[in-house]
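I have been asked to look over a protein record a colleague put together. Alongside the sequence sits a line of tokens, each denoting a local backbone shape. Please read both lines and tell me whether the tokens look consistent with the sequence. I do not need a full report, just your reasoning and any doubts. I have pasted the whole thing underneath without changing anything.
>
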Amino acid sequence: MRATMHGYADRWLKQSTARERWLLIAGGAAVLIWIVFALVWQPMQVRRDAVSRQIALYERAIGALQAAPAPTAAAPVDPRSLNAIVTDAAGRFGLSIRRLEPEGNRIRVTVNDAAFQSLILWLDAMQKDSGLHASELDMTRGPAPGVVNATLVLER
């Protein structure tokens, strides 16, 4: 069968005109260019844009950390309960809290599948807005890039 197919292709090429061969070559080149664009160039551009957005978020988080006031600076004290402060602020940053364990002037918080930059910005806001700072932090890598699981203790 292979010899038959090969022989058929040879006969077709010998019987075709120069114009038909040129159209075949031009069509093949156009298909090759389309394949390179659709399967290589376009996915690279999409990934590059996503990484650029992620880098911008990380830079914003780093800037917030560097601009944070010294721990001795007096932060406002929020009179609400620690549960209310933490859940309200977490909602603003799109964090989903799995567990809250109040312990006097401290609260242990467990967050799963949180964007790293959102968690860092949330911690910065907690310190600036409510006077809560993280005294303990245990963070592990999540299932996707830029996603973490964290257990932390916030205290006044």
